[in-house]
Write a structure and sequence with these properties.
CATH superfamily of the largest domain: NAD(P)-binding Rossmann-like Domain
Shape: globular
Distance between the termini: 52 Å
Number of strands: 13
Strand order of the largest sheet: 12-11-7-10-9-8-13
Strand content: 25-35%
Number of helices: 10
Number of domains: 2
Keywords: Oxidoreductase
CATH topology of the largest domain: Rossmann fold
Protein name: Gfo/Idh/MocA family oxidoreductase
InterPro entries: Gfo/Idh/MocA-like_OxRdtase_N (IPR000683), Gfo/Idh/MocA_oxidrdct_glycsds (IPR050463), GFO_IDH_MocA-like_dom (IPR055170), NAD(P)-bd_dom_sf (IPR036291)
Length: about 300
């Protein structure tokens, strides 16, 4: 890293790379998007053109040789082995969720990051919205919550922009928006320690979850990306001895990603390796996703 900017490489060329990662890094005053790599060279060139000035790389190794840090916009089964190589090469990393395909893979990434001592952040962008951070601060300050609920109802997987994203269609709402939802419920009510019930309904591809928290609170989550809701419903609530708190979590992903980059740059500059949304958070959420799958009933 030079005195002013962090040289970053982008891995991936899907919709999120085009819409958020690439433009976000290119626009941020503290980062310089210098390299893009994807399995399809023409796709990497397309992202590089959108981001302005980045160089499409012929190989992942070429990208690693050029950058200080890597941001990933690829499916979990692709991200895990590449991220491991990046970490072992001493590169700081911004990681998509889910972190990996399995808890074991996620654990190996955490072990490597702790051993090498690199900065890591998960793309849990909701945490970086001022209104979300303010809501969480208030909820934690007040305390005494008996329970909570999350609703995420959208048409994302009916949108042709994601037609070429097989992992999203295979994993559905649980894999894509489940980590965000579990993260916010966990952050608001205390660690989720048990998945009490998990049900998947074929009509609408709807997930229904009942969660138990270390605090004694219980929460519910309803997740679907196959409902033509415009605007989408994306809200969280908690209730307890001091009443009720509601959060509308809709917002601009671009500004949230910029705030994530602020935090990432600060970690790199200060030599920090710990953050509430670092790679350890990714492992925790990976375990919760596994617990949901284990609790799934017909």
């Amino acid at each position: 890293m030079n005195d002013t900017t962090l040289r970053m490489g982008l891995v991936g060329a899907g919709p999120w790379a085009h819409r958020v990662h690439g433009p976000g890094i290119a626009a941020h005053p503290g980062t310089d998007l210098v390299a893009v790599w994807a399995r399809r060279p023409e796709a990497a060139s397309s992202v590089a053109a959108v981001a302005g000035g980045a160089t499409p790389m012929a190989s992942f190794d070429d990208l690693l040789a050029t950058v200080d840090a890597v941001t990933f916009a690829v499916p979990p089964q692709v991200q895990a082995p590449l991220a491991l190589r990046a970490i072992e090469a001493g590169k700081h990393v911004v990681l998509e969720k889910p972190l990996a395909s399995t808890v074991e893979e996620a654990g190996r990434l955490v072990d490597a990051a702790e051993r090498v001592g690199v900065a890591t952040l998960m793309v849990l962008t909701f945490r970086y919205a001022p209104e979300v951070a303010g809501w969480l601060d208030d909820v934690r300050r007040v305390g005494g919550w008996h329970g909570g609920a999350a609703r995420w109802i959208s048409s994302t997987l009916l949108d042709m922009r994601y037609e070429a994203s097989p992992w999203r269609h295979d994993g559905g709402a649980l894999a894509d928006i489940g980590p965000h939802t579990l993260d916010l419920l966990d952050a608001a009510l205390g660690p989720v320690t048990r998945v009490l019930h998990a049900h998947f309904a074929e009509p609408g591809a709807v997930w229904h979850l009942l969660l138990g928290h270390e605090s004694g609170a219980t929460s519910t989550a309803t997740l679907t990306m196959h409902t033509p809701a415009e605007p989408q419903v994306n809200d969280f609530t908690v209730f307890g001895e001091h009443g009720y708190r509601h959060l509308d979590a809709s917002g601009d992903p671009g500004s949230r990603y910029a705030a994530l980059l602020d935090a990432f740059i600060d970690l790199v500059r200060t030599g920090g390796t710990e953050h509430p949304t670092d790679i350890r958070r990714g492992l925790h959420l990976q375990r919760l996703l596994g617990a949901v799958q284990a609790a799934l009933v017909d």
